[in-house]
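Same chain as my last thread, 532 residues:
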Amino acid sequence: MSIKWTDADSPDVNRIDRALYFDQSIMVRKILFLLTLTIAALCGAPRKPKLVVAIVVDQFRYDYLTRFRSEYSAGLDKLLTSGAVFTNARYEQFPTVTAVGHSTFLSGATPSISGIINNQWFEREDGREVTSVSDPRTKLLGGTPGDGSSPERLLVSTVGDELKIAHAGRPRVIGISLKDRAAILPSGHMANGAYWFDSVTGNFVSSTFYFADLPGWVKDFNQTHHADKFAGASWLNHKMPLDLKQLYSAMVASPFGNEMVESFAERALEAEQLGKHQDPDVLTVSFSSNDYVGHELGPDSPEVREISLRTDKVLGQFFQALDRQVGMANILIVMTADHGVAPVPEKNHERRMPGGRIPAGTLTGAVQDALVKRYGDGKWIANSYEHSIYLNQGLIGQKKLDPAAVERTAARAVLEVPHVFRVYTHEQLVNGTALEDQVGRRVMNGFYARRSADLEILLEPYWLYAASGTSHGTTFSYDAHVPVIFMGTGIRAGRYYQPVAVNDVAPTVAAILDVETPSGSVGRVLSEIFGE
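reply #2:
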């Protein structure tokens, strides 16, 4: 149990302890930074590339590299044989979800600094739910009419932003994915464009945040109706719909979604002349189809093996295009995943492993009942999203209650629910009293006071909120352990076993590019990979 306060606990003392913790952390980071500079000077940083290609494979657990290793023969094989492979890389925050992983990748920031706390959250000030990239001030371009998306909610810079600042805006920075957040968050605020797939029209789309109209090359690509060629195509025992509307919807949950992203990335490479400018360029590409397949069928399914092998082939094709267009000797490739995934509980039961499902409404019901019993009738929950519960602050104020006391009452009720591992309250996280172990630190790293919930709930290992299939989001290794691989001229290939964080990618790429470290970065430069 993580609740250890009493009514006599002093927030002032907690603030002092937290301040001392952060003062010590800053001192440690300064020492590590100076050591990194010394090591880098001795080793020599890799040659500055003409193009940085940052690749995310959505929901690609680290063990997919080893589980299917003997069957890889293309892109993943190239990365594993010619790259610097970190075998013990993890995310150091909660939750482990798409928006958080993609925002961490090229910013080096934790959610406590970047403000990207989840895929979506409840904005207390506006009383509405928002996504990590929703922006009603923008319009969608090229797809279904409606609001667009932007990096406005990302509070920090990315490597691409720092590169453009250092070179007077000349570098080209492009982000591509099936998902808007996966295209937007790694490429940053100053990107020349971010593009994602509209499953209604079958087009790649963007937002007026970047430009008033889609570039001509994107319109030309959309005119080819690239997705249409997959109508009726088969993979394993799955056949794609012939009806185009159904096809576009089904594309994302098939290997053909990744193939389409790769084709679009090749077109962007050529049209934007990436890697052929005076200054380095950045291309971020996120392959999202693995995530959709994994959610539905789980990591032990034949489909996950199949899409992993097809991802190897897609990356191989992409690398060939990169070599033709720019030359691999001029490219730095960085690959990771945004999170892992839990086994399907029913499969775990077959293996006599723990796990199960928490029925929908169980946790919110426990909170509502406890608060009604203690404080009287009312709608006590303003919003909830799986592990996050936002209490009704208006009702708390109306009844002239102490918010922290209400949080504690709610947390105790949740802890009584079977298979709840821990509960952290807003009060604990604001005061820094959750820093008791790795789990607590990761929850703290994921907390941003203005956006985070009043209760953050962690289930026991292998327990899920999902009613079917599987999911991710925990601090446990099956969700947090992901690949981190660097490949390029001046990168020392091999396997590196020391613990690292995904936060280390951004400062390392910034050091190679010789630009300022992104503003919210908390990682270190992985100088051990410098020098062939």
